[in-house]
Amino acid sequence: MPEYTGRRPHVSGDIVPLFKRDVPTQPMADACNAVSAKLTTTVLGELDAQVAKGADPEAVARTWLSADGLA
């Protein structure tokens, strides 16, 4: 059994941005945090459903980002 660390384990619905250690800038970190604060599992499912129905993934993402004041 893994040792309990007090942190929530990642589940399959979690999106985790990965960066090489010396690459992220503060604006990049701020952007990731802003998206993370608004991109819930429910929202992600809704976006995925649009793409599954044939919508362009980039257009879906841009629309969501704009609608939530992130673009």
Task: Tell me about this structure.
With 71 residues, the protein is an all-alpha fold. The protein is 51% helix and 0% strand. The protein is built from 3 helices and no strands. Helix 2 packs antiparallel against helix 3 (57-67). The N and C termini lie far apart (43 Å). The mean pLDDT is 81.
Task: Write out key terms for the chains shown.
71 residues, 0% strand, mainly alpha
How would you briefly describe this protein structure?
This protein is an all-alpha fold. The protein has three helices and no strands.
Give the overall shape, derived from the CA principal axes. elongated
Number of strands: 0
Q: Helicity level, as a percent range? A: 40-55%
What pattern of helices and strands is seen along the backbone? HHH
Average of pLDDT = 81
- Tell me the major beta sheet: none
Strand content bin: under 5%
The total count of helices amounts to 3
Report the uncertain regions.
none
Radius of gyration: 15 Å
Q: What is the straight-line distance between the termini?
A: 43 Å
Report the structural category.
Answer: mainly alpha
